[in-house]
Amino acid sequence: MDYRLKQTNYELRDFEVEYLEKKLRELERFLARESNSDTHLAVEIAKDAHHWKGPRAFYAEFTLSHEGRTFRAEGYGETPQAAIDEAKDELMRQWKREHKRHLSLVRRGARKVKEWLRGFGG
Predict the structure, then answer these.
(1) pTM of the model
(2) Which residues contact 67 (CB under 8 A, 6 or more apart)?
(3) Any idea where the domains of the chain sit in the sequence?
């Protein structure tokens, strides 16, 4: 999985970049089951000019393109790490929900085929 990092109104320090890469490795491991070369991630980390202090000071946005589907998550926090955590967790929630829905549709279709085949045998 390749990713593109955009920094707005804030330059990430070395330990913050390492933290981001650690979280992206976790995300990559999570997606590894179905991963292919068509997986791209755009990451934006920003410091909000209007809320320069407090719980919404930093903003993180992840946009994941995976097999023709796009998932977008954003997170806010007092630190870049908190915003990254919130955005990553939201992205994983969205992906799990979509994956679960897809499996449900596949199973429902397989069930219909099985019922149809049973109708021929009887």
Answers:
(1) 0.78
(2) 34, 36, 38, 39
(3) 2-121
